[in-house]
Specification:
Oligomer: single chain
Strand order of the largest sheet: 1-2-3-4
Number of helices: 7
Radius of gyration: 21 Å
CATH superfamily of the largest domain: Type I PLP-dependent aspartate aminotransferase-like (Major domain)
Order of helices and strands: EHEHEEHHHEEHEEH
CATH topology of the largest domain: Aspartate Aminotransferase, domain 2
Length: about 250
Amino acid sequence: MELGPENVAAFFAEPIMGAGGVIMPPEGYHKKTLEICRKYGVLYVSDEVVTAFGRIGYFFASESEFGIVPDIITCAKGLSSGYLPLGATIISDEIYEVINQPQADGALFTHGFTYSGHPVSCAAALKNIEIIERENLLEHVQDVGQYFEDQLKTLVDLDIVGEVRGKKFMMCIENLADKKTKTLFPSSVNVGARIAEYCQKEGLIIRPVGHMNIMSPPLILNKQHVDFMVRTLRKAILSTTADLRFEGHLAA
């Protein structure tokens, strides 16, 4: 309203914020923002580059998990499982009907890239989707994903684990210097990287993002893998905590 709806073309949102730290939206957030967009004629764009194609147990999270139908969905990553680079933009019938018509005499809406519709990448994506369906990977992620969530949350008993959050195969551990006050470690401490380094020594690769550790495992992850991950994370976090105490970053 501050900008004026006539000055806003579209609203962009990830169903679950990925690189920002796997931030779960408040209950009803997406439905309410979509309602506001519809009221003022603003397009709703759902960025499903991370969440689409099985990451949280559905082909698309917007409708299946959050109950909304966006005007536009962007996707990539899981579309081809990364075997070949490919991204896609999915638009509603309403948008297509507009851009498919001449806007004025002699005018034409054109949009394309040199490698649009690349046949090899598209073939990889089609085979990837076929495997997801054939192997029932969406159902697998919903089953094992809940176990993954539950087991990771057992780590909150550790001194520096402030929160474990996320959904299914998209999870984050947030590490804090003080869990009561939610005080962060100084960035120079590199707590996330320290934990990741200990994990890698044990054969587990996780992603450090500042004071956090993010996990987006393969869709074939099973419960035995989860048990290994949680054991390794617990050991790595305990080792990191001991180092931080020795260095004076935590009370003894």
